[in-house]
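Sequence in, structure out. Go.
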Amino acid sequence: MKANSMTRKLTLAAVFSATFFLATNAFASDSKAHDEHAEEKIMQVEKAPFGDAKAGKAKVATCAACHGSDGNSTNPEWPSIAGQHPEYTYEQLKMIKEGTRSAPLMAGQLNNKNDKDLKDIAAYFAELEGKSGEASADTFTLGQSIYRGGNTETGVPSCAACHGPSGKGNPMSLYPDIAGQQTGYILKSLNDYASGKRTGTAQQKVMKEVAALMSDAEKEAVASYIRGL
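Output:
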């Protein structure tokens, strides 16, 4: 059983590493081949906003109590959502409204919001500027090591493989921007993933596998490191 478990862990790490390596090289190759069209593609993305941020501003009055008037939470247990990818914020709001993601403090907050409202709210917060904090010096080395390189002995893949070296995530794959996120919230999320309390999307299923392999010390160190990104 132990051998099978270790094989599964190493396989998971290998898959993550290989996927990230191949995706990075494929992207680099494609960028060189189509460099002349890069600016055009960016322009096209910019012309297709996700939701109406101006309309969203009028729909977030109750959000400030927990997430801050500028989208940056002052409570370490509550997430900051300023600057978050609107696609991700929308997905989470929709899940909370439908009951597929448990968020007791938000119970009833979205009952009177339709799909357009959720997109407008997500667009509004996406335009705000996120703020980072400071990582603990005591756990910085471990946090940086796990975030950037994972733990090959236990099969923990690097966080950067999905969230990027700077923690900005990937909106196309619905991996959130976690740079500067509250330490307490990241730690709670990792524990919820590990216990199976938080599940739902394909990305969250991946996080469950990853978090379950992490030690408590690794979770705490990574959470602190992310706060400082």
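Check: The radius of gyration is 18 Å. The domain at 53-126 is CATH 1.10.760.10 (Cytochrome Bc1 Complex; Chain D, domain 2).
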